[in-house]
Structures are given as structure tokens and as C-alpha cells.
Design brief:
The protein is mainly alpha-helical and 190 residues long. 22% of the residues lie in helices and 0% in strands. It has 3 helices and no strands. Helix 1 packs parallel to helix 3. It is globular and about 70 Å long.
Length: 190
């Protein structure tokens, strides 16, 4: 009761992040009462989308996505429907959801997709070195530019260079055993 102590690590961060999530839920209910409860996947997307980077852009094995910024997440909730979209939706196997966005290409476009996946199949005996994917639903985001006629154009790797037609993939963390990724090394959008 007479002193403070400085600690670090995920166990220490869990209390602060959990309290921040409770405040985000309270703010969501205040701002968007007709939207119902904020889904756990929405919370996860808000946290990932609004992190403060620690070092190189994107997630890595040392720092994860970065440091949770609850204030930025709350600002995203506040700006919902104006400059930020937050969509809670259900999708079935092989379905496609299209969302039309207008962008000038002069500012960053940041999209975060998160979902709640059902439990995967547990293999026995249990192993801490399990490398087989347990993902049940595999969702993807594709950015498609449209021409003046409203027709889909090929995907662009670099919007500032119309000749760079390619697919822009999201940030991923590869399995460090199967893909020979060294922990503490940054990942990239491969």
C-alpha cells in the first residue's frame, strides 16, 4: 500500500487491456445502443486495428500486433459511419460480402477482419509442437478497384502505380516451425 512497482509482459498487460475492453464495451453501448452488444471479434478487430507499432510495421513474433491503444479504438467507435466502418456480420461458407468504399488514394486505407472461429479438431495425444492448422473458417479480404463504368478492374499491389497489377495480401504470422521463421523477426505481407 505504500509503493508502486514496474513490471512488463503479457500477464501484466492483461489487466490493463481487460479494463480497456470493458470501457470499450461501455462506450459502444452508449454510442450505438441499437447495434446490440459488441461482438468479441469486433473487440479483437478494434484492438488490432488501432495498435501502436513498437518497431517494424505489422505483427511480429516478439511484440505481436503492437501495444493496445484503447483511446484510438474508442475514436474508431466514435467515428463509426463517418470516416470509419465497423461492420458486424455473419457469413456462410462460400458467401461473399461486398462493401463499396470511396478512396482518393492519398490517404492510408486500413482494413481489419476478425472472426470467431469454432473449435477445431483436437488431436491426441496433445502436443505443444502441433503445427497443423486448426482453423475452421478461412476468410479473405480482396480489394478490387472499379473503372469509370463500375466494372471490376484487376487488383493493384501499389495504388500509386496503375501498372502494378497484382494481389495485395494481408499481414500474416507464419508458423515458425514449418516455415523456418525465426522468432523476433518481423513478418511481412506475403
Amino acid at each position: 500500500n505504500t509503493s508502486y512497482e514496474i513490471k512488463n509482459g503479457t500477464s501484466t498487460a492483461a489487466a490493463g487491456v481487460s479494463g480497456g475492453i470493458a470501457l470499450l464495451h461501455q462506450y459502444w453501448n452508449l454510442k450505438w445502443p441499437s447495434s446490440g452488444t459488441m461482438w468479441s471479434s469486433t473487440v479483437r478487430a478494434l484492438l488490432i486495428h488501432n495498435v501502436d507499432e513498437i518497431d517494424a510495421p505489422g505483427p511480429d513474433y516478439r511484440h505481436g500486433w503492437g501495444v493496445a491503444n484503447i483511446r484510438k479504438a474508442a475514436e474508431t467507435i466514435k467515428n463509426r459511419g463517418r470516416k470509419d466502418l465497423i461492420i458486424q456480420n455473419k457469413i456462410c461458407n462460400q458467401d461473399t460480402i461486398r462493401i463499396n468504399l470511396a478512396a482518393t488514394g492519398l490517404e492510408d486505407l486500413k482494413i481489419t477482419l476478425a472472426w470467431t472461429d469454432p473449435a477445431g479438431v483436437v488431436t491426441t495425444p496433445l502436443s505443444t509442437n502441433e503445427i497443423a492448422a486448426k482453423l475452421v473458417n478461412d476468410l479473405d479480404i480482396r480489394l478490387i478497384r472499379r473503372n469509370a463504368n463500375g466494372d471490376d478492374m484487376p487488383l493493384l499491389l501499389d495504388p500509386s502505380d496503375p501498372s502494378s497489377i497484382n494481389l495485395l495480401n494481408p499481414w500474416i504470422l507464419k508458423n515458425n516451425i514449418a516455415d523456418n521463421v525465426i522468432p523476433n523477426q518481423p513478418t511481412n505481407n506475403l
